[in-house]
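Lecture notes, continued. The same structure-token format from the folding unit now serves as the input rather than the output. Read the line below as a description of shape only.
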């Protein structure tokens, strides 16, 4: 596959996640940029990605990005921290030059890290993320580049995505698994004043996490940050902006059963959606 085989006409913005979590990003992006067209792709059949190895997440993410390019996207947002941590750099450096050097793939980690510098007061930052994101040390590395004096403590939360995907996020059983990670994080660095929800599923656990943490700790959700960063990116890159269509539509694609996708997507978006099944 190279750029001669990809559609050149302007197209929608692609938003990719392993499953449903990216919907929390999509809804904020759409709120900020309502006129554009979007294609959301959830690789639900192969989710979760959080405990998968580097090369598998890279391969799956590249397949998804290539599919979104084939469907006319010139810009794809990896609305998934695990994919941003494990695949973004390789796709940007190794694959885009071959697929099409004029298309763009952006992640969620860098904009989140940029924003956190204005939020923390003492530079003690905690991260909640999947085991894959934590093992990649992507947040530690990106924060060290911008703010070398910050102390970063990353806590892997292997049960949080399954809780959300199994509709347990609001139930009493979730409290145990939330407290397990919040207590451990704060025991590892009691000075933390800011915590990043470094997984796009975690906003659905926000009220439990808020309850489990002292009030003076700021909890950072990514949706709004990523949306503002994309708005800024498009204003700085008119050549990309010109390749995006504006019909205010959203198409939902899933690699799993579309009825199953629609049922859970409704929980994330608070409105019903119709999805189409594809294979990658
Ligand atoms: N939503 C993904 C993220 O932001 C994690 C879900 C998964 O483990 O697949 O990391």
């Amino acid at each position: 596959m190279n750029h001669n085989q990809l559609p050149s006409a302007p197209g929608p913005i692609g938003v990719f996640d392993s499953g449903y979590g990216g919907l929390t990003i999509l809804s904020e992006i759409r709120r900020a940029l309502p006129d554009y067209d979007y294609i959301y792709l959830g690789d639900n059949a192969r989710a979760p990605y959080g405990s998968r190895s580097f090369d598998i997440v890279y391969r799956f993410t590249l397949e998804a990005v290539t599919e979104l390019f084939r469907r006319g996207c010139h810009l794809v947002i990896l609305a998934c921290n695990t994919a941003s941590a494990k695949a973004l750099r390789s796709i940007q450096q190794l694959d885009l030059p071959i697929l099409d050097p004029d298309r763009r793939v952006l992640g969620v980690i860098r904009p989140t890290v940029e924003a956190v510098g204005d939020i923390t007061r003492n530079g003690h930052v905690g991260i909640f993320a999947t085991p894959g994101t934590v093992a990649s040390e992507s947040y530690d590395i990106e924060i060290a580049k911008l703010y070398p004096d910050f102390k970063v403590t990353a806590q892997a939360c292997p049960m949080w995505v399954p809780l959300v995907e199994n509709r347990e996020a609001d139930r009493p059983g979730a409290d145990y698994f939330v407290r397990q990670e919040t207590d451990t994080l704060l025991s590892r660095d009691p000075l933390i004043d800011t915590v990043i929800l470094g997984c796009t599923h975690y906003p659905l656990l926000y009220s439990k996490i808020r309850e489990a943490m002292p009030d003076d700790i700021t909890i950072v959700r990514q949706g709004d940050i990523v949306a503002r960063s994309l708005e800024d990116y498009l204003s700085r890159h008119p050549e990309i902006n010109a390749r995006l269509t504006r019909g205010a539509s959203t198409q939902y694609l899933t690699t799993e059963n579309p009825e199953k996708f629609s049922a859970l997507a409704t929980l994330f978006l608070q409105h019903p959606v119709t999805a189409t099944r594809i294979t990658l």
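Point for the exam: The domain at 109-222 is CATH 3.40.50.1860 (Rossmann fold).
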